[in-house]
Amino acid sequence: MRDLFDKIYKDKGPLGKWADQAEGYFVFPKLEGPISNRMKFQGREVITWSINDYLGLANMDEVRKVDAEAAASYGSAYPMGARMMSGHTDLHEQLQNELAAFVDKEAAYLLNFGYQGMVSTIDALVSKDDVIVYDVDAHACIIDGVRLHQGKRFTYKHNDLESIEKNLMRATKMAEKTGGGILLISEGVFGMRGEQGRLKEIAALKEKYNFRLFVDDAHGFGTLGKTGAGAGEEQGVQDQIDVYFATFAKSMASTGAFIAADQEIIDYLKYNLRSQMFAKSLQMQLVVGALKRLDMIRTMPELREKLWENVRALQNGLKDRGFDIGTTQSCVTPVYLKGSIPEAMALVKDLRENHGVFCSIVVYPVIPKGLILLRLIPTATHTLQDVEETLEAFSSIRERLENGTYKRMSAALIEAMGE
Questions:
Q1: Exposed, middle or buried, 31 (CB in 10 Å: 0-12/13-18/19+)?
Q2: N or C: which end of the chain has fewer CB within 10 A?
Q3: Is-contact 262 106, C-beta < 8 A?
Q4: Looking at beta carbons, which pairs linking 25-34 to residues 24 or more positions away fall under 8 Å?
Q5: 6-54+301-417 falls under which CATH superfamily?
Q6: Is domain 61-299 in CATH 2.40.30.170, yes or no?
Q7: What residues does each domain of the chain span?
């Protein structure tokens, strides 16, 4: 028998093996200063494209004032205990009611964290006889929720209607054998590619197949739709989404999340969501802050308009310069380049050190080998000058990638790693 930790000592994993070179710079970086379009990284000012503060609420004076007043009034502990025992308040109920109304559902329920809440909601919705069908590119929180499922699950090719229907047919046959039901899970917006889930087409399949639709709209809530109610509103099928999920960590610039559905579904979930039944209630300062943020999303459409002005300027500018940004249909702006992990490190260092541009870098195993994905998140706080400087920087780094500069710069790193 081997020591449990042997695998840890011998294999750090596909990302972990780069830790000595990457940690503190490429991964676990430290951005400093007020959350904004420009922050400090290792003492230098950089244009920040890695902050999910879509509407620019995080550092607004009126938002910070409400947060500070709530903290002064309630402290950081109140209420103590889980909602079912001692952590329930009128303000929790008010926020739930306002969220439900905003996304056009009968009821809503607060979650302490998006990731934890998603995992627990999937667990509560299905039993061992039920079948889950989900997108292969689903977020990690969905994948981890599905892993808890003791029954059958099928993945379909990303946003592929033929694959979706094929797997619904498989799921139907399985459910008929087990006597269970079918839960189909999609994202409203896929956070890496920026593509919207094909919710309208999936909803239309309800005419042929008996399933319930669960949508994770973390990146759509607050950014898409006429009122900002998300991808379902954008595609005109909000009423066909059986369980709607969104997080406060994106447009709301806070902590927490919620689910929304018919009243009877929410009544069931609030008594069966283990992550909420056995965890401390969402603290009051976050609840009060979320009420303020939601009100601003409802009453200040100019924030969303400014966001989309910046999105269009950035995405159109990249396309005009010949960059591959995939088929994004949202604010998420991916830029696909070809290169190795060491080349990606050299490229990003150049981008940050010499051009003052900070964006997220994604490499294998999150995306296929040989690809580099630079993901940019435009916000309402960005300026057109930020966009122009970034476009100039990207043109420069592409030229250096294509002429082999980064390959030569990374040779020493490859040799040091013994690759």
A1: middle
A2: N
A3: yes
A4: 25/349, 26/345, 26/348, 26/361, 29/358, 31/358, 34/59
A5: Aspartate Aminotransferase, domain 1 (3.90.1150.10)
A6: no
A7: 6-54+301-417, 61-299
Tens digits of residue pLDDT in 42-99: 999 999 999 999 999 999 999 999 999 999 999 989 999 988 899 899 999 999 999 9
User: What's the pTM?
Assistant: 0.93
pLDDT in tens, 165-178: 999 999 999 999 99
Bridge partners (DSSP) listed for residue 109: 259
Query: Identity (one letter) of the amino acid at 202?
Result: I
The values of phi and psi at residue 251, to 5°, are -60, -30
Q: In what order do the strands lie in the sheet with 38-41?
A: 31-32, 38-41, 44-48, 357-358
Q: Which residues pair with 374 in a beta bridge?
A: 335, 361
Q: How far apart are CA 213 and CA 241, in angstroms?
A: 5
**Strand positions, DSSP E, 30-70:** 31-32, 38-41, 44-48
Q: Is the dihedral of CA 334, 338, 343, 346 positive or negative?
A: negative
Amino acid in the structure at residue 34: P
Comparing C-alpha atoms, which of 159, 221, 220, 219 is closest to residue 184?
Answer: 159
